[in-house]
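Tokens for chain A. Residues wanted.
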């Protein structure tokens, strides 16, 4: 049995989902209500691999909302994640992905120190961040979508916004080692971590986002921003490929401008329909087949009976692990989303 711990992208999103699912009493509630709401299993999932193997899982809604961080309700935010993990474990789930901000909160607030949640002693080997598969899928999206657009990587500058993060640093390492990309630009806030990445890879430039955007042929967005940013498309190169892997999205709105192509980053498409409801709630274009790569990681670990925290901690993702998860991803019928808009 696999599990997925997820959350919605904003209070407004949570209210509209509650209304849609027929819970009007939840739909009218503000942030305080969501701060006290307990985790819930809201979906049961059946996935069939192209090998014919079938697995079952559960989606656990943590009731975390990004506004909890913005309004400094840190205790509520951390409680949501730890309670959702205990809930998953209590229901006998072998391997659970910590989707979106769940793993970011776990790391940033040192939740590994909390082992006991009421009568549940958390077993961290039952959880994975899913970031190895996410990083692998984003790298394949860079390679394949650039080809579709006629952007030659050997002449291209790739900007990674969130470059020092778990996913961002893995993407930078892969692009450096596995492609002939001409140049890399790293964007984040903490200068020390940026310098460390530059020294590790012995290449690439550190710049502010404003300075970097006009120089990039491809932008990978993997910053942990609770709210997306607005950018001026007229300052970008043409063509320019923007791969937005943030959840919530790093770009606040869909850009429609000649020569600018946006791709939903870190998303995979399965070859067969998945029996679930949850992906229509997060507005996937093809909800029966498309999903977050981090969620797919827990499915892959369940298919392979790899009951281990495959992705854990920060900046530990190796190219070998990306290769391994990439191979099983293909084996079970997942592929990177390549629908450009
Ligand atoms: P991390 O916390 O490990 O890294 C976040 C990175 O973003 C760091 O480099 C951080 O550096 C940078 N950052 C944060 N805020 C800003 C800002 N305002 N401007 C520029 N850089 C910023 O996060 P992850 O790598 O785990 O996740 C990254 C994103 O990917 C998140 O949005 C997450 O929800 C999403 N995600 C998507 C998945 C999918 O399946 N599609 C799966 C898992 C995560 P600094 O603090 O120095 O600025």
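Reply:
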């Amino acid at each position: 049995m696999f599990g997925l711990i997820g959350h919605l992208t904003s209070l407004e999103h949570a209210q509209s989902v509650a209304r849609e699912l027929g819970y009007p009493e939840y739909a009218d509630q503000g942030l305080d209500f969501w701060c006290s709401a307990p985790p819930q299993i809201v979906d049961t999932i059946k996935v069939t691999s192209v090998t014919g193997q079938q697995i079952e899982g559960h989606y656990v809604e943590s009731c975390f909302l990004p506004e909890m961080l913005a309004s400094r309700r840190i205790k509520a935010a951390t409680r949501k994640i730890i309670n959702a993990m205990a809930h998953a474990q209590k229901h006998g789930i072998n391997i659970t992905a910590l989707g979106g901000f769940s793993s970011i909160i776990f790391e940033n607030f040192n939740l590994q120190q909390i082992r006991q949640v009421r009568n549940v002693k958390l077993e961290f080997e039952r959880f994975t961040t899913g970031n190895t598969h996410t990083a692998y899928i984003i790298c394949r999206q860079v390679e394949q979508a650039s080809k579709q657009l006629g952007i030659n990587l050997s002449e291209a500058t790739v900007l990674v916004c969130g470059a020092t993060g778990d996913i961002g640093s893995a993407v930078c390492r892969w692009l450096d080692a596995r492609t002939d990309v001409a140049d890399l630009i790293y964007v984040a806030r903490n200068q020390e971590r940026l310098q460390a990445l530059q020294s590790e890879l012995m290449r690439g430039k550190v710049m502010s986002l404003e300075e970097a955007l006009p120089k990039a042929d491809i932008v990978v967005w993997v910053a942990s921003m609770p709210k997306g940013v607005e950018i001026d498309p007229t300052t970008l190169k043409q063509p320019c490929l923007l791969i937005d892997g943030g959840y919530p999205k790093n770009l606040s709105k869909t850009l429609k401008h000649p020569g600018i192509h946006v791709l939903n980053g870190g998303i995979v498409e399965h070859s067969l329909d998945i029996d679930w409801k949850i992906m229509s709630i997060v507005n996937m274009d093809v909800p029966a087949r498309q999903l977050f790569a981090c969620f797919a990681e827990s499915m892959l670990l369940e298919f392979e009976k790899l009951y281990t925290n495959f992705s854990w901690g920060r900046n530990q993702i190796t190219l070998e692990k990306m290769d391994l998860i990439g191979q099983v991803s293909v084996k079970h019928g997942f592929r990177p989303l390549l629908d450009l808009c």
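The chain has a mean pLDDT of 95. DSSP finds 13 helices and 16 strands in the chain.
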